[in-house]
Every structure is written in structure tokens, then in C-alpha cells.
Amino acid sequence: MTLNANGVLAPYNANDFNPDNILTGIYNGAAYIGPVGAPGPTGFNNDLAVLGYQNLGFITDDGAPTLSLPGEGDSNPVRVWQNAQVVRTIRTPNDEPPTFGFTLAETTRAAIEIAMGAQVDADGSYVVDGSAERGHFSFVLDVLTAEGGRRYWAPNAVVTETGETTFTNDGAIAGLPVTVAADFSPAINGNIKVWDTALAGSGTVTPPPPDPDDDVRSAARGHVGPLADDAAKSARGKAAPVKETAKTAAASHRRGKATVEVPEADVANLVKGTKKLVDDLAVV
Predict the structure, then answer these.
(1) DSSP type of residue 191
(2) Across-strand partners of 29?
(3) Is residue 227 within 8 Å of 247, Cβ to Cβ?
(4) 145 in helix, strand or coil?
(5) For residue 15, how many C-alpha atoms fall within 13 Å in the half-sphere facing its CB?
(6) β-sheet bridge partners, residue 100
(7) Using the 8-state DSSP alphabet, how is residue 119 labeled?
(8) 149, 143 Cβ separation under 8 angstroms
(9) HSE on the CB side for 137, CA within 13 Å?
(10) How far is CA 253 from CA 217, 230, 247, in A?
(11) For a surface tag, which of 18, 67, 219, 221 has the fewest beta carbons within 10 Å of its beta carbon?
């Protein structure tokens, strides 16, 4: 909260809160892998198959994708003898990369190769070598919601952990749990690049068009808007007489056009009413 021109505590701006910005349940998405060095997406409009990526298929509901970011690292305070005061804090950044976690539901060549780290032969056979070094690949995860979607691209990803697969006679065989680390990539000068449709075009915030009644509402909440402020100043002899009605003021704010002359009686009534409103607020 802030104090307005009259020293009255003003509430937060209602326009700063928008429930439409809250992402709701995820209803779709997919994970893709491609070779290291494969052209990365440039947004949501890319056909990843054309760029050389393979869709990893269904992901289990109880193994839905997760994204884990590394912690803030370690901090070591430097304390001096005088008053045992901390005069400096040395921070060591975390060297762990961000990781994605998910459980693959389908048994496909791409799913086996990423989960098992093995090359599948034409006859469907593969050799699992737990000591073999895992190769890096390009990874893309799409997450779609009712409000839009996000696309994550990790150009230098690698599998760092796999989980257990349970062979059950009741229902589907449990999928292949996989943890993918997003190592640093010079291609993006970072670990992950994200496209978010909810943020597209939001580099410059465009306020909504003014409402003709905004000044009245603002004054009632402790905000004295430009029209009321000018009127109050006119009443005190500190500004030129107001030349706009609320309607023409709002129109001029929107269009940037010149003001319109109105009868002096209307101006006097506006000034009188606004001054009373400002005086009432000062009492509050």
C-alpha cells in the first residue's frame, strides 16, 4: 500500500491482480528428444518432427512431468571480532542443473533408448549396461493448459536417473521413470529456454483504457484522480478552471484530443462537489 497525495493510505491497484493469469489444470503435452545439435524450436509454431525430434509418447498420470530448479547454493558469513558482527556473506552458487522428471508409459524404441541408455537393434533386442556413460541429447517438453502453454527446450540434456519398473498382473505394467538433467548449453547461454504464451507480447505493459467513472471511484477509495485533483486545485485558486466534464475528460485521456469548453455553471458544480469529496477524505 502507498499514501496518496492527501496522505490517505491507498489500497493496491485492482488491475495488478488478475485471476486469468493463474494456470489451471494441464490437459495435454508431450516430451521430445533429438540429437545434440539438432535445430531447436523458435517458438510454439515449429513442427518438431521436421526438426528431427521424436515424440516419447504417453506419460503416466502418476508420473506427470516435473521441473526441479537447483537451490540457491551455499552461503558463508564472514564474522568479525567487533560485536561479533557479520560484515560479509560469501555465496557459492549451486552447481546442480535443473532437472525434469516424468514416467514414460509406452514401450517404443525412443522410450527404451532414453530410459535404458541402450541402442535397440532391428530384431527388438538391446543390451543394458549400467556402467556406460549416458549420451547427451536435445530435449523438448510441451505443457498445455486451458489458458495457453509452455514449451521448454534443453539443448544439452542427459538422463541422470531412472526408477523402478513394476511387472504386475493387474492393469498396465508400470512405466519407465526418467530424470533428465538440463546441462548448460552455449547455444542458449543457459540450461533451459522457455516459451510461454501467457507472457507473449507482455514486454510492454499496456494499461486498460480509462473508465469515465475512474476518478470518482478512485477518490472514494482514497485515490484522488487527475480530474478531481485539478478541480480541487481550482477551488483553492491554484489551477486554471476545469474545462472538462467526466465524459469529455475520459475521452480526451483515451484519444489525446483537446479539451472541450462547458458552461461555467457545470464547472462550478463539479468543483464544489469534488472539493467536498476531497475534504471528506481528508477527515478520514
Answers:
(1) S
(2) 143
(3) no
(4) strand
(5) 9
(6) 67, 180
(7) P
(8) yes
(9) 22
(10) 17, 14, 10
(11) 18
Question: 3-class DSSP state for residue 265?
Answer: helix
Collapse the DSSP code of 192 into the 3-class scheme (helix H, G, I; strand E, B; otherwise coil) and give the result. Answer: coil
Tell me the CA distances in angstroms from 82 to 76, 88, 248, one per residue in order: 18, 14, 66
Task: Residue 93: count other Cβ atoms within 10 Å of its Cβ.
Answer: 10
Confidence of residue 187 (pLDDT cuts 50, 70, 90): very high
- Which residue type occupies 137? F
Query: 48: which DSSP letter?
Result: T
**Segment 214-243, tens digit of pLDDT:** 444 344 334 434 433 444 444 444 444 434
β-partners of residue 161 are 179
Residue in the block written with cell 481528508: 282
Q: Which residues touch 44 (CB under 8 Å, ≥6 apart)?
A: 149, 151, 195, 197
Query: Rounded to whole angstroms, how far apart are CA atoms 121 and 173?
Result: 23
Give the separation between CA 135 and CA 35, rounded to whole angstroms. Answer: 10
> Hey, what amino acid is at 192?
I
Tens-place pLDDT, residues 117-172:
888 999 989 999 888 889 999 999 999 887 788 999 999 999 999 888 877 777 66
How far apart CA 34 and CA 55 sit, in angstroms, is 9
Distance between CA 165 and CA 264 in Å, rounded? 84
Which amino acid would we find at residue 86?
A: V
CB atoms within 10 A of CB 245: 18
Q: From the CB of residue 51, how many other CB atoms can be counted at a distance below 10 Å?
A: 16
Distance CA 238, CA 221 (A): 24
pLDDT at 222: 41
